[in-house]
UniProtKB/TrEMBL annotation:
Signal peptide: none annotated. It is found in: Cytoplasm; Nucleus. Residues 1-173 form the PCI domain. Belongs to the CSN8 family. Its main location: cytoplasm. This is COP9 signalosome complex subunit 8. Coiled coil: none annotated.
């Protein structure tokens, strides 16, 4: 779960970009904003941000390209490559965000596996979660998943369904209006 701190930082960075006299943020601010968008799995906004970042900012800050490399891997759903790209040395400016992104990716992958797979090879589980086989085995045991030692297959246990909040028609219409308004502007 993304912290409220990152959500408020995202809003502040967006505000700074919009209100800056030149209409541009600093490369460090762009790096933080891009990393937060990725952390929120907001790949569309990340892609639009990448396109509007000035070439001079991209060339003066190599870290922006490294962050975007992670975004490209996420866009292609190449999670093993995303985990590899996340191993880059990060500056203090984005290190905590990239660590949170790595944890979020791993958590989403494990939740996806729990909900989508009846069995998966231990090595595939490890690759999808960006961990080694031993760590995958530990996580499987913690979750009560069954591991067949002979075939090295993991049998995830599907979590109980959560109570879903039913949205009213008016709420759905408001959400659709917000999406359309966002796309038109």
């Amino acid at each position: 779960m993304i912290s409220e701190d990152l959500v408020s930082t995202c809003a502040e960075l967006e505000r700074q970009e919009l209100t800056s006299p030149t209409g541009e943020a600093s490369p460090q601010e762009y790096a933080q904003l891009l990393a937060i968008y990725l952390c929120q799995s907001d790949l569309c906004n990340a892609k639009f941000l990448w396109k509007r970042i000035p070439a001079s900012a991209k060339s003066s800050n190599e870290e922006l390209s490294l962050i975007w490399k992670v975004g490209q891997c996420m866009w292609k759903r190449d999670y093993p490559a995303a985990y590899a790209a996340l191993q880059a040395p990060w500056s203090d400016n984005v290190r905590h965000i990239m660590t949170t992104l790595q944890e979020e990716l791993r958590s989403r992958a494990i939740d996806l596996i729990a909900n989508a797979y009846s069995s998966i090879a231990l090595s595939d589980l490890a690759a999808m979660a960006g961990i080694n086989d031993r760590e995958a085995e530990r996580i499987s045991n913690e979750r009560g998943w069954i591991i067949d030692a002979e075939t090295e297959m993991v049998h995830p246990v599907r979590p109980p369904p959560s109570s879903q909040v039913i949205t009213s028609s008016e709420g759905q219409l408001n959400k659709l209006t917000d999406y359309v308004s966002f796309l038109e502007n």
